[in-house]
C-alpha cells in the first residue's frame, strides 16, 4: 500500500510539472540588422561623427550657445531624471531576488471564554506551583522573519536584467536628446545669420530704389516722364521697407527660440557679423553605413529596448513554471515580558517551503506572455525601422549637400548677372533708353535672387548640421 501511495504521489507530481511548464506557442521573428556596404562607391571609414561638437563647430558664438543649452535645457534635464527613475527600477528588481529580512515586535491582550476548549485549557494551566496564568492573558513577541523566493527559473534575475537594459536605453535616449539639441541650436543660429544677411540686403535695396525714385522725380520735373512711374517707384520703395519689418519679426522669433532652448528669457543673441555668404561649409566624411549601429544613439536605444523586450518574454514564460518559496522565523514569545529572555521555554522558530504552480485558469499568465511576445516583435520592427531611417537620413543629406553646392554656384552667377543688370538698367533709364518697368522688374529680380542665394547658403549650413546629426555626432 505504501508503494502505491508513493507511486500516485509521483504521478501527480509529474502531471503537476507537465501542466505547469507547458507554454503556448507564439510568433517568432529574427532581427535583420544588415545595411548596405557604402553610401556610394567610397569605402572610406573616416567618419565626421567621431568629432566632438566643439571641434565640428568652430564659430565661438555658436559654441557658447550650445554649451549653455547643454547645461540649462529643460528637456535634457527631464531626460536626466528619467535616467534616475530607470536606475531606481534596477535597484528595485535587484532586491526582489534577494532574501527579505524583517524584524517584528508586538504585544497584546486577549480573554478567551471560559467554557471553550482554549478557555478551559488556560484556566487549568499553572505557570508555577499554586500560580495560575494571568487573566486576561497578555502576549508579547519579538522575532525575525525571512522570506525568499528561490529564482530557479531566473524569472527575477531576468526582470532585473531587463530593467538594466531599459536604464541603458534611457542613457542612449539622453544622448539622442543631446544630438538633437546641438543640431537645433546650430540650425537656429544659422537661420539667424541668414535673416541678418537678408535684412542687410533689404536695406541696401531700399537705398538703390530710393535713388531710382529721386531720378524719376527729377525726370518728371523735366517733363520727361509722367506721374505714373513716380507712383510705381514710390510703391516699390514702400513695399521693400515693409519687408524689413517682416524680417525683423522673424529675427525676434528666432532669437527667442534659441533663448528657449537655452532655458532663459528673451534677450539679444550675440552672433557672427561677417558676411553670411562667405561661410564655407565643413568637409563631411560619411564613413561606412555599419558605423551607424555604433554612432547613432537612437539605434543603440532601440537595441537596448529590444534586449529588454526579449528578457520580458523569458520572465513571462517563467510564470508558467512552479515557484519555490522559503520562509523562516525565529524569536521569543511569552505572556510576561520577563519570560522573553528565557530559553528554550519562550523560544519560537519555524521553517517552511512552498511550491506553487498555476494549473487552472492560466488566462492571465497567457495574456501576459502573449503581450510580452508581441512587444518583442514590435521592438524588432522598431529596431529595423530605426536603422533604415538612419541610413535614409544620411543618404538624403549627402545628396542634398552635393546638389546645394551646385545650386549655390549657379545662383551666385545669377546674382552677379542681375547686379550688373540693375546698373545697366539705371544708366539706360537715365538716358531714356529703357522703360521704367524694366528698371523695376530688374530690381525685383535682383532682390529675389539675393534672397534665394542667402536661402541656399542657409540650407547648405543646415545640411552640414543635419548630416553631423544623422551620422550620430554631437552627443560625445
Amino acid at each position: 500500500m505504501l508503494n502505491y501511495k508513493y507511486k500516485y504521489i509521483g504521478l501527480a507530481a509529474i502531471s503537476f510539472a507537465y501542466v505547469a511548464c507547458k507554454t503556448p506557442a507564439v510568433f517568432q521573428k529574427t532581427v535583420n540588422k544588415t545595411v548596405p556596404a557604402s553610401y556610394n562607391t567610397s569605402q572610406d571609414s573616416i567618419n565626421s561623427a567621431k568629432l566632438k561638437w566643439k571641434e565640428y563647430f568652430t564659430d565661438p558664438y555658436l559654441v557658447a550657445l550650445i554649451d549653455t543649452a547643454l547645461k540649462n535645457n529643460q528637456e535634457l534635464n527631464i531626460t536626466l531624471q528619467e535616467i534616475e527613475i530607470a536606475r531606481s527600477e534596477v535597484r528595485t528588481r535587484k532586491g526582489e531576488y534577494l532574501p527579505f529580512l524583517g524584524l517584528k515586535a508586538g504585544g497584546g491582550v486577549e480573554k478567551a471564554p471560559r467554557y471553550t476548549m482554549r478557555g478551559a485549557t488556560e484556566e487549568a494551566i499553572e505557570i508555577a506551583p499554586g500560580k495560575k496564568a494571568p487573566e486576561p492573558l497578555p502576549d508579547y513577541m519579538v522575532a525575525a522573519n525571512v522570506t525568499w523566493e528561490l529564482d530557479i527559473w531566473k524569472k527575477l534575475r531576468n526582470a532585473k536584467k531587463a530593467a538594466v537594459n531599459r536604464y541603458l536605453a534611457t542613457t542612449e535616449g539622453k544622448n539622442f536628446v543631446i544630438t538633437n539639441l546641438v543640431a537645433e541650436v546650430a540650425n537656429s543660429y544659422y537661420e539667424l545669420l541668414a535673416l541678418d544677411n537678408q535684412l542687410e540686403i533689404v536695406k541696401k535695396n531700399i537705398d538703390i530704389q530710393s535713388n531710382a525714385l529721386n531720378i524719376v522725380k527729377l525726370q518728371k520735373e523735366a517733363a520727361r516722364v509722367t506721374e505714373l512711374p513716380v507712383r510705381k517707384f514710390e510703391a516699390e520703395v514702400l513695399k521693400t521697407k515693409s519687408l524689413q519689418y517682416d524680417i525683423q519679426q522673424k529675427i525676434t522669433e528666432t532669437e527667442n527660440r534659441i533663448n528657449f532652448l537655452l532655458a532663459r528669457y528673451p534677450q539679444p543673441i550675440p552672433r557672427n557679423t561677417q558676411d553670411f555668404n562667405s561661410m564655407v561649409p565643413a568637409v563631411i566624411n560619411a564613413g561606412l553605413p555599419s558605423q551607424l549601429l555604433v554612432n547613432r544613439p537612437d539605434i543603440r536605444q532601440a537595441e537596448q529596448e529590444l534586449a529588454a523586450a526579449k528578457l520580458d518574454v523569458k520572465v513571462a514564460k517563467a510564470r508558467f513554471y512552479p515557484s519555490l518559496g522559503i520562509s523562516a522565523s525565529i524569536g521569543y514569545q511569552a505572556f510576561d515580558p520577563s519570560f522573553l529572555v528565557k530559553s528554550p521555554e519562550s523560544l519560537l522558530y519555524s521553517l517552511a517551503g512552498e511550491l506553487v504552480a498555476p494549473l487552472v485558469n492560466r488566462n492571465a499568465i497567457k495574456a501576459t506572455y502573449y503581450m510580452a511576445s508581441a512587444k518583442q516583435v514590435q521592438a524588432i520592427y522598431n529596431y529595423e525601422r530605426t536603422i533604415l531611417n538612419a541610413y535614409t537620413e544620411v543618404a538624403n543629406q549627402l545628396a542634398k549637400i552635393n546638389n546645394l553646392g551646385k545650386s549655390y554656384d549657379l545662383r551666385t552667377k545669377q546674382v552677379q548677372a542681375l547686379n550688373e543688370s540693375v546698373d545697366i538698367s539705371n544708366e539706360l533709364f537715365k538716358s531714356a533708353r529703357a522703360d521704367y518697368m524694366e528698371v523695376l522688374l530688374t530690381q525685383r529680380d535682383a532682390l529675389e535672387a539675393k534672397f534665394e542665394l542667402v536661402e541656399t547658403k542657409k540650407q547648405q549650413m543646415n545640411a552640414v548640421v543635419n548630416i553631423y546629426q544623422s551620422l550620430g555626432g554631437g552627443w560625445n
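The chain has two domains: 15-97+153-320+362-470, 99-150+323-356. The longest strand covers residues 137-150.
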